[in-house]
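Page 37, top half.
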Amino acid sequence: MPTSISPAVPATDPDLELVLTRDVPVPPARLFHTWGSRLADWWAPRPLTTPVCEVDLRAGGVLRTVMRAPDGTEFACGGLFLEVVTNERIVFSDAFVGGWRPNPGIFFTAIITFDPLPGGGTRYTARARHWTPEACRRHEAMGFHQGWGQCLDQLVAVASDDV
C-alpha cells in the first residue's frame, strides 16, 4: 500500500528531466531494501564517501547526506521523501527540508522505480526532474549519467552481497 498519493508519471520532458534506466540482476525487493538500509555504502560515486547519512524511508521522512571527496571537499544533499511504495517506487525532493519547510535552493525531484523483470531482475529507472532547463543542464554537466550510473553499479554490488 502506498504511503502517499501516487500521481501518474507523465512523459519525459527532455528540457527538465534526466533519466537513467538499466536492467539489473537483483530482485526488486532486495534492491529496494538495500537502497534504503545501506545508502551510505553506495550513494556517492567512488572515490567519494558518504560519512553523513540520515534516511527515514517513509513519506515525509528526511533524507540527508554529505558526500566527501578525497581532498576533504564536502557536498551536502538533503530533502524529504514524498512517496515510498515498498519494492516499487521512491520519490524524494530537495524542495523541502525537515518539517516540510520550503528549501530556497531547490534543484530537483527524483523518482526511482523498481520494475520486476522475468527471471527475477529489476528494471531500475531513476528520473531527476528539475524546475528549470538551466538546473537540468547543470545537473547533466555535473555528470548525472556517469555518476548516477556508477552509484547504481555500487547499489547492485551491495545488494548482491546483502543476501
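Page 37, bottom half:
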Amino acid sequence: MPIRRSNTAYLFLLFPLGILLVFTLIPTLLGIGLSLFAWDGGPDPSWVGLNNFTDLASDAKFGPALRNTIVYVLGSVPPMVIIGFLLAAAVQASWFKGRVLVRTMFFLPTILSIVAIGYVWRWLLEPEAGLVNWALRLVGVVNPPDWLNDEQWALRSIIVVTVWRGIGFCMVIYLASLATINRSLYEAAEVDGATPGQVLRHITWPQVAPTTAFLFITGVIGSLQVFDVVFVMTGQAENDATNVLNLYIYRLFTYGQLGYAAAVGVVIFTITLLATAAQLTWTMRSRRAEQGAA
C-alpha cells in the first residue's frame, strides 16, 4: 500500500512538473542559448558568444530602460505592500464599519483587465479632454502637465496606476494573514497599556512577516517583467522616459534582433534571481534575529 500511494503521488506531480518543464524551464534554457547568437529569424543564426551582452554596455536605449525598470520596481512594490498592510489593519479593526464594501472596492481593480485599466487611465490623463486635467483647471491650475508625455511625470503616472491597482490584492492577502494572529497577544498588549501604534508595530507587523516577504518577492518579480500597462498607457510611443526592459525586448523582436532581445531577457532573469535571493536572505536573517530575541 505505501508503494502504491507513493506512485500515485508521483503521477499527480507529473502534470504540473510537465507544464513547468515545457513552458518555463525549456524556454528559459533556449532563451539563454539564443542570447549567444545573432539571429533575425532566418535559417542561419550566427554565433557571437558574449558580444550581445558587451554591446548592452554601450547601448543608448538599454541604460534608460534598465533605470526605468528599477525605478518602477522601487516606486510601486513598497507602497503597494505598505498601503495594503495599513488598509488591512484598519479593515480588520473591530471599530471599522463597512469592511465588506471597502474590501470589495479596493480589490475590484485587481480582477479587471490591465489593458482596460490602462486605456481608461490613458483617457483620464489625456492633456486636453482628460478628467484629471479638467479637475485641475477647475481648482485654478492654468497649465496642468501632459502626464504621459512629460518626462517628469510619465513614469510616475504609470507607477501611481500600478499602486492603485495592486493595493487591493495586498490588502486581501494581509487580511487572511491577520485572521490567524493569536488574539491573546492583543489582549496582553492592552493590559500592558500599549498604544494602537505600538501594537501595529510590535505585534501585527512582525506576525505577518512571512506574508510581507511573499508580497515583496512576488511584487518585485512581477514588476521587473512589467510590459502591458506601460505599452497601453504610452500608446506604443518610443520614449526613453517610459521605456522598460520588457518593452525594449518587444521592440527588438519587431526589429528582427532576436538574439540581442534574448540577451536583454537574460539580464532580466539574472536581476530577478538576485533580487529574490536577496529578499529571501533578508527574510531568513530577520526571522532568526526575532527567534534569538525571543
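Margin note: The CA atoms of residues 56 and 122 lie 31 Å apart.
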